[in-house]
Design brief:
114 residues, alpha+beta, 50% helix, 25% strand, Anit_sigma_mycothiol_RsrA, Znf_put, Mycothiol system anti-sigma-R factor
Length: 114
């Protein structure tokens, strides 16, 4: 996703990390970048709001139960290794025929515990 605005951090990257932001799982520098983007970008802020409400709903419905340690660790590993793939397709009709161009972008962020 891209809102068309010029931001220091790309919308797709922010949305891929919104759960890390909600769970306070990213470092202070990254958190500040994500917060700045959310302050500047209404579409991403709206998506963040939906995810925030979903998290609150899940907490209210499942608040008394705790996941087993193994499951929690596997989920944390998956969240830290967040991958977002995005494809963009362009179709152009020209005098010599139709041209189709497919561009794939892959964002991968791996956080290691230090």
């Amino acid at each position: 996703m891209n809102c068309g605005g010029s931001h220091e951090t790309d919308c797709s990257e922010v949305l891929a990390e919104v759960w890390l932001f909600l769970d306070h799982e990213c470092d202070a520098q990254r958190r500040a970048l994500l917060a700045q983007h959310l302050d500047e970008c209404a579409p991403c802020l709206a998506e963040y709001g939906i995810d925030e409400k979903l998290k609150a709903l899940l907490a209210s419905k499942c608040g008394g139960e705790h996941a087993p340690d193994g499951l929690r660790e596997r989920l944390r590993t998956q969240i830290r290794h967040a991958v977002l793939e995005q494809a963009q397709v362009t179709v152009e009709k020209g005098p010599s025929g139709t041209t189709v161009e497919v561009r794939a972008t892959r964002f991968e962020r791996v956080e290691r515990r230090g």
